[in-house]
Amino acid sequence: MNIAPVVYGQLSAWAGLKNLRAGWAGSAIVSRKKAATSVKGLAAYTRAKFVSELPGYSAQNMTFELMIGFLMIISLIIIAVFLYILTIQKLPNYAVMRVQSIPSKVLVGGTLSQALLLVGSGLVIGIVLTVITAVAMPAAVPMAFDVPILAAVGAGLLVMAVIGALLPARSVLKVDPMAVIGG
User: Fold this and answer.
1) Are residues 87 and 37 part of one domain?
2) What radius of gyration, in Å, describes the C-alpha atoms of the chain?
């Protein structure tokens, strides 16, 4: 946790420095030892609970989650359009393959493999750039990567790639060799 400024010391020293009246209590005390909660109005929180109770923390997290959700939808659209354009450009090739009796399963598998290869390559490049960024950032910059969340987003992108490849795969299955090749 990187929240500045932080002052370490005894509570009595703090009261003396701030010229506070007797009986003063701080609004928060962070301790490595378990705090006694017998004092009225004093509550002990775990680090995770304390961070989640910070003002604006949950609102900011919800904003990021909404952004990630929209990025997933945008990724789906981009992948689908990109693969559709690639498929339309190769439609004569697919028509020839259909005439040669290449099974539809093979053609659809090729489209799905292409989508997974493109997104997988992008994920690997993204991971490498993330690691480089993490190493290059100064320690003073508060930055943390939650690996389970990053893994979930990566898996979500792979799912979006499969969903996005279904539209071009449908075009491959419906290609009419006579109309494309001519005859």
Assistant:
1) no
2) 28
Quick one: which of 159, 161, 165, 175 has its CA closest to 104? 175
Domain span at 14: 1-54
Per-residue tokens: 65: 């989650």
Q: Which residues contact 118 (CB under 8 A, 6 or more apart)?
A: 79, 82, 83, 161
- In angstroms, rounded to a whole number, what is the distance separating the alpha carbons of residues 39 and 55? 24
pLDDT at 180: 76
Residue 117 vs residues 138, 152, 162: alpha-carbon distances, Å: 34, 18, 11
pTM: 0.65
3-state secondary structure 45-79: CCHHHHHHCCCCHHHHHHHHHHHHHHHHHHHHHHH
